[in-house]
Amino acid sequence: MIEHLVRVSPSAARLPRERQLAWKLAALATTAAPVDPAAGATVGHRVVDNAAVAVASLARRPVAVARDQARAHPATPGASVFGGGPRLRVSPEWAAWANGTAVRELDFHDTYLAADYSHPGDNIPPLLAVAQHAGVGGAALLRGLLVAYEVHVALVTGICLHRHRIDHVAHLSAATACGLGAMLDLPTAVVYQAVQQAVHTTTATRQSRKGEISSWKAFAPAFAGKAAIEAVDRAMRGETAPSPIYEGEDGLIAWLLDGPDAAYTVPLPAPGEPLRGILATYTKEYSAEYQAQALIDLARRLREKIAGIDTAAGVARIASVVLHTSHHTHHVIGSGANDPQKYDPTASRETLDHSIPYILAVALQDGGWHHVDSYAPQRAARADTVELWRRISTVEDPEWTRRYHSPDPAHKAFGGRIVVTFADGSTVEDALALADAHPAGARPFDRAAYARKFATLTAGTVADAAGRQFLDAADRLGELTAADLALLFPAVDDAALAAADAALPKGIFR
């Protein structure tokens, strides 16, 4: 692993492109590397993970809207759309838009947390769409996805966007552009320009994750993937980009991040080193913000120590519930965000899945979490739940913040400590550092767990035979032909989506 120093360079210095971060990312994408077997297998697992959460979201309005927009852009050969049926093929950027929205809608796929936040699985829809349209096979797709994950993990490890209220999809678009470049075997200079175009056009504010969170949260990564495809297309045609996008004196670092005196360190594998970045990422067992994963497990465990917490009488015995946790959990999804919407029973699903007080209230009462039922309006409005919810707060604990940012995997933690104080002054507390499903947790997700997640989320929508065919194809990802990539879209009961599609108002495209 090589640590690359990234800092602002005055225009007069004419920073050579070989010393620019965008070039170094492009060079990684265009340098051959052996496939690590564990990393390659994990790519297949994440394809399963993405399809599971995409199918589970197909009837939801934002996903139906994105799918309907995609239908208006048919193409040959084109790319498949989840829920669109085997005959529908659309332009790859629009397939990436529809499928990326489906994957992101439930907040239920993989994550990587370091200096910034990310969902690296968001790279899969745009790469898969272009692979189908360009006629490349599974081996090239696998290579592209390993590169996309590697770049995504490196940028999230080295450069913090959220401190300056920049949304994390700016890192996603760079990773996708690199993955596309690797998959299509493009020259380094072309990928370099595409990375810069993609970053320039997808730098947006984090207001999409603040206050009353809207459906744009699901669309944002799909937009980044679509923009990256378009950037690669332009770069392949010889078009250039604002440069240097990271180090320029009017660039990302100088004006939107830490300023002209800032310096960042981005770790990238040495030439010829296997790409193992995907192994640092982790998926979700529950449909909620990743920092909530360990806390749902903790709430399930703590619930056994609090008699009657699922009743009004039991809640009345509780004076307060305080979560001691990291800076991010407190300030982004906790009471430290100062968002009244995080305590509003009528808030959107997108807001509730970014409200740890709500998630803790429901998990403490129900002893689990369901991707639909736990967000139902009637569940959020239940009187005893609202009463408990409003007694829950978060505080930052410096030790949990330190562990959150620890570079040592043995000490890294995304959980916290919950202290329940009763009206009589007695207390009950417990702590958990990592979600049970984390690679270092009590029961790490394995191939069987991904298959169970797929079966659970697609029950009643994907027939058993179609599900087995899909899982087999994902297991053989690197061996698939270009034609076989269609197998990565499990056949669904299209009739189940008819009502969602029929209810949509029309827009410009149709």
From TrEMBL:
**Superkingdom field:** Bacteria
Taxonomic source organism: Pilimelia terevasa
- Residues forming the MmgE/PrpD N-terminal domain are 19-263
Similarity comment text for this entry: Belongs to the PrpD family.
What Pfam families is this protein classified in?
A: MmgE_PrpD_C, MmgE_PrpD_N
Q: Identify the residues that the record assigns to the MmgE/PrpD C-terminal domain, covering every copy.
A: 286-474
For molecular function, the Gene Ontology terms on record are:
lyase activity
- The name of this protein is 2-methylcitrate dehydratase
